[in-house]
Predict the 3D structure of the following.
Amino acid sequence: MRPFQFNPGPRLISGDGSAARLADQLPDGPCLFVSDRDVISLGLTDVMRAALEVGGREIVLFDAVEADPSKETLLAAVDLGRRHDVTHVVGFGGGSPMDVAKLAAYLLGSGDNLDEIWGVEVARGQRLPLALVPTTAGTGSEATPISVITCEGGTKLAVNARPLIADWAALDAGLTLGLPAHVTAATGIDAIVHSIEAYTSARLKNPLSDALAREALRLLAGNLLKAIKEPGNVEARSAMLLGAHLAGLAFSNAPVAGVHALAYPLGGIHHLPHGLSNALMLRAVLLHNAEAARDLYAELAEIVAPECAELGSQARCALLIDRLDRMVADSGIAPRLRDHGIPADDIPMLAREAMKQQRLLVNNPCPIEEADARRLYEAAW
Ligand SMILES: [Zn+2]
């Protein structure tokens, strides 16, 4: 067995009402509460905010987080927190509010300069106490040490460092019951991609990340379509939320790769939602990897299609790609880049931009050069 290292995630509270119960764990003093306007207007934060106030805390609300949050948004949240002398930070919502909350807690606590901490394990300071509550089952951001911010020219930069792992996370599936089908689909596919890319991650996969990735894929693939068809099905929603969290723990340790690297320019430049971007690139990248990752894909095929155990590894690998492709279609996602307004003329630029994601490309089971990336975008177009 290869030597390995595994970093656990936050302390976890799961179940109905867990977001409100989380309030009891938090320190006294003003709370920087980071969310977005949709989450607030749906009333999802009401119970937790009331619980924080019952505990005597002032809530300093920052509700201006947009999709693909920008550096300006992050720095505005930090500035608000500093002016109110907050003692802790809550991130409540999808990946965007959680990513902003993680870095805001870090910058407020450490006093570091953002432009000096991009990259892997560069940030080493002390952040403020931090709690995260996801309202989508997808990014797994509540489990990870990663925060992705959109910078000048649409380039996505990330801080990936252990101080960003939250102190607490609450998995409260009731918060996800109202998610519209297209959001359930895109975020669910994102989580499925996390589990697959963690399982085939070239450098850092290990027995624990493998176990988490396999269980994540079982929960996610078994419940995605049910959660879309029956949005009020709490069992399916709970399984999706746990699956997304386990996939987050897996890829915190065994990082994601080519699908994400090629998806990022679609979000950064064309503002497609992160999960949708991943769904659109999934088939092309898996086919590109099929030879290098054949045995691992064959192992995952047994999770999504248990009846295939008798087949050879090449057939199982092809079956996995086929099943995932069908899952994307059945989830209602229009499967081509052109369905989402991406002009074919943009492909060379997208491929150039994807090459900036070397932190991800190094984890792919086989190399993706710029010419490969162009070909993969063309295949997905
Ligand atoms: Zn993702």
Summary: The chain has a mean pLDDT of 96.
